[in-house]
Amino acid sequence: MFHIVQHQPIRLLTRTSLPSTCLKLMLSRPVVFVQIWKSWFSSHPLVGNKNIILMGPPGAGKTTVGRIVGQKLDRPVIDIDDDVLETTWNMSVSEKLQDVGSEQFLEEEGKTLLKFSASGSVISLTGSNPMHAAGMQHVKKNGIVVYLDVPTAVILSRLQSMKVDRIVGQSPGVSLKDILQFRKQFYKRWHDIRVLCGGDTAAEVVAEKVLDAVKRYQNSELETFISTRSSSSERSMDKDSDKYFSDVVTEGLAPDGGLFVPERGLPKFTVGEWQSLIEATYIERAQVILERCIHPADIPASKLAEIIGTAYEENFTCSKIAPVRHLAGNQFLLELFHGPTASFKDFALQLVPRIFAYCIPRSCNYLVLVATSGDTGSAVLDGFSRLHDTDKQRIAVMNFFPEDGVSPIQKSQMIGCQTENAWSVGVKSDFDFCQTAIKQIFANSGYTGFLTVEYGTALAAANSINWARLLPQVVYHASAYLDLVHQGIIPFGSPVDVCIPTGNFGNILAALYAKMMGVPLRKCICASNENNVLTDFIRTGVYDLRERKLIPTSSPAVDILKSSNLERYLYAIAKEDGQLVTQLYNQLENQGHFQLGKDLLGKLQQDLVAGWCSEEDCLAAIHSVYSTTGYILDTHTAVAKVVADRLQDRSCPVIISSTAHYSKFAPAILRALRIAEINQNPVSQLHLLSSYSPLPPVHWRLLETLKKRANEDHQVCAADMSMLMSHIETLIQSHFM
């Protein structure tokens, strides 16, 4: 058996635990710092005797990077090719491959790996080691697997320069590119940490990134979340109540009424890291971005990959998931309606239920509350209905929506998506009441405590007040920019504007977060309908709900006056001043308005511009775009199109978020296109649309849902908190008791 034992355990460096003298030396005398680093690693056991295991395709630089990492840590370095396989076989790896062929080579390579043992070392795997499950399980038991993720085009170029024309698994008719693509599934399965490596990233830089990634992996306690209303003094005094990703997913709203945000901010990607994702698929981009935002202590990389794959591979009708298509001139549409319920909400709500089920403790039942202005409800119900039966037994969903404030098709869809553990309740009020009611229920510790004690049930939120709802939206904004680069529309680094129909500020906040993470977005254009409180706010800095009444429109998802996620953005630009945010929102709650100071308004206007669209202009835009291009915009996308036409200066591309499929809003589309008299029955409306042959097809899943459950009913209640609580208790009793 090949065996190496490391006599000095590895200790990973944390910034907070270094003495201040070391920090000064690190800045002023880098050579001395390297010596201190080595000494510090050898005397502070954090990783213990675990190995750092480098994994990746042939040509990823595992051997070179491994030597540099070993040198920095003063650890033994083991190259599986040179130090294990060739030593065991007494021949070169290429000779062995030629001698026994690919299939037998993999088996013998795996058996050799099973006999290998080491501790406290830096190990560079072969490109094919991950294809042998038993061998990888054996090696991984005592190590942290770091995936050097290099773009396939870069690997092919490197292999060509190294004159490598054959690797394990290649056969006649199978290209190197095909083999490299095939192997990605194994790297995805086994890695604990991913390090993105661009084509021109020096090995020394990659080694530093490996060390940084391992430090992050070992220090999950650094990735905490705080409330937008917490002060720095409160945070420093209350370290015992730290919240992590798993906590904020299950709790939803912070105890003080604020919204959870990462205490250390969002992860930043370098230009090279973003460029390495240009050739990637949507699912690959999602995996990389979400791995940076979710610590593996909360969800391991392999489990996250499984969740993402299940959410997007099986349930979206377009293979590109979120395709970007040219509309006209400098305008592009980001199509976000290819999910099962035909709106952008599916991106988060096919993912979040699976994340939620993974994160919650097994000892408690959960009731997920959601308020919707239209699209969220059916997306939540559909997402949670796809959980395993064992998860559905301990998770129920209650969806509150304005009974007369959504489109007939949206209402039918929500009713049709009800299951034994998921109910829809129509409320005789507007969305703002529904959302405020849920926040008040969460803030009522007496009531939530009663549910826990009496029924063993905790409450959770699935609205975009839940942090996990925002992360998948960051992905599609980043992916849209990368798609424009991939299509040759722009080089990476060129600015792009985005225009987003906005109500609760979640979708546009995700774009702003993508910008903070390094995506070269210039302006985020906030598009409102006649409920234009956000337009006025962005232009003047005054958020004023006095004298405002909600106006029902044909774009109901943005029929919102209180935009919850605006709070997160204000917290970010106010330099995380929780006291200021608390002051602003207390004033909004008590007096119905607040005003930003001049400096804060200036920061906001560096990122945002805003405009609004009338009902008449919305319908006219649908007709005009269809007449000139044959494309049908839904009502929300039409609002954004009108605002983009007015505000965008055409000096760069603008990506308009197409947030829903047009068939969800059939009456408005029929009116806009002047097709026929409108029948009130939702199924009839869809049939009329689908029978009009010049139109693109209606959303197949939407029609299927409405046909299947057209006659189902739902509960309706008054706009009264006690009535809502009564419905909550009824669902808990019927499902969990």
Structural class: alpha/beta
Return the CATH architecture of the largest domain. 3-Layer(aba) Sandwich
State which percent range the strand residues make up.
5-15%
* Whole-number mean pLDDT: 89
Task: Enumerate the spans where pLDDT stays under 50 for 5 or more consecutive residues.
Answer: 1-46
In CATH, the topology of the largest domain is named Rossmann fold
How much helix is in the residues? 40-55%
Spatial extent as radius of gyration:
27 Å
Major sheet size, sense and barrel closure: 6 strands, mixed
**Overall morphology:** globular
At the first level of CATH, what is the class of the largest domain? Alpha Beta
Strand order of the largest sheet: 10-11-21-16-17-20
Per DSSP, the total helix count is 33
How many domains?
A: 3
Number of strands: 22
Q: End-to-end distance, in Å?
A: 57 Å
Keywords: Amino-acid biosynthesis, Pyridoxal phosphate
Domain Threonine synthase N-terminal: 225-312
Modified residues (N6-(pyridoxal phosphate)lysine): 345
Organism: Semnornis frantzii
Short account of what is shown:
The protein is 49% helix and 14% strand. The strands form 6 sheets. Strands 10-11-21-16-17-20 form a 6-stranded mixed beta sheet, with helices on both faces.
Describe this structure in words.
The protein is of the alpha/beta class and about 725 residues long. The chain folds into three domains: about 50-220, Rossmann fold (3-Layer(aba) Sandwich); about 225-320 and about 340-455, Rossmann fold; about 325-340 and about 470-705, Rossmann fold (3-Layer(aba) Sandwich). It is about 50% helix and about 15% strand. It has 33 helices and 22 strands. It has a six-stranded mixed beta sheet with strand order 10-11-21-16-17-20, with helices on both faces. The chain has a five-stranded parallel beta sheet with strand order 3-5-2-6-7, sandwiched between helices. The protein starts with a strand and ends with a helix. The model is unreliable at about 1-45 (pLDDT under 50).
